[in-house]
Amino acid sequence: MATAFATPTTVIGLGGSSVSRINTKAFSSSFLKPTLRAKNPLRVAGASGGRFTCFERNWLRRDLNVVGFGLIGWLAPSSIPAINGKSLTGLFFESIGNELAHFPTPPALTSQFWLWLVTWHLGLFICLTFGQIGFKGRTEDYFER
Description:
Largest sheet: none
Order of helices and strands: HHHH
Radius of gyration: 33 Å
Shape: flat
Strand content: under 5%
């Protein structure tokens, strides 16, 4: 067994048969064209100014109107006192104040802060997403028949 490990061409598990070295000469055939180097699409000159992009350059089509109207569109309904006479925005800001009162220690996992944080931001991001869809869809005549 020690000799089986000493020889580099012996394959264990095939009954001690040995494998010859593979010829490093390239295979050639009359059916195959000579090897051509493929062009890398990441280095094609002139494609997006030399940069490869999967999306168009201005895919977000950022518009500050959407951010402004989306923030107002979320602050207005979230400021309605609907939760025991308090608003979601008020509860969120109040929980921020309570957590800042003992600043060096972080909020506990059972703190109401996390519920108000997730709920408030989830509503904001949903409002901004629908605002982006609606505003850009309207400016690009997406909803026209």
